[in-house]
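hey m, so remember when u said the tokens were messed up on ur end? i reran from scratch. heres the input so u can diff it against urs
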Amino acid sequence: MPSVLITTALPLVGVALGAAGSFAAQYLSTRETKRQASRATAAAVRAERKEAILVLLEICQRVERVAEHRYQNNNTFVDGSPELTHEMWFRQKCLDLVVSRHLSDMAFRFTDRLMAAAYGRVPDGIEVWDFIHEKRGPFMEAAKAELGIAQA
């Protein structure tokens, strides 16, 4: 009788251990797959944010050039500046779609400052570069934080 019990019980124990191992392996595999998917999603979101930031910075650089030219030429209107500033505002709105509220606010303040500089509204006694940098610095810091770039 004991040998019949052993010959019956051992295969059942083996099946139970095999099933438990299979379930454990499936659980670990599913958990790792979810982690990988989460990391991929986070990387895609970060890439989208970075692209929106870079596109805004590119147009802001062109508007900054307009502001410098106007500042250096006795507040003379620069042809093409309305189109550039409209493009800048459009890119700022595009950025709003993919970034945090904080970065969106910093971007708005920066673009608003560039708009003022491009249309010659720099306060007397302040150089255009200082006027712009006052809002560009906080925007850049917020952008770095949004992208997870370590601050020095």
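this time it looks ok to me. The first helix runs from residue 2 to 72. if urs says something different then somethings off w ur setup not the seq
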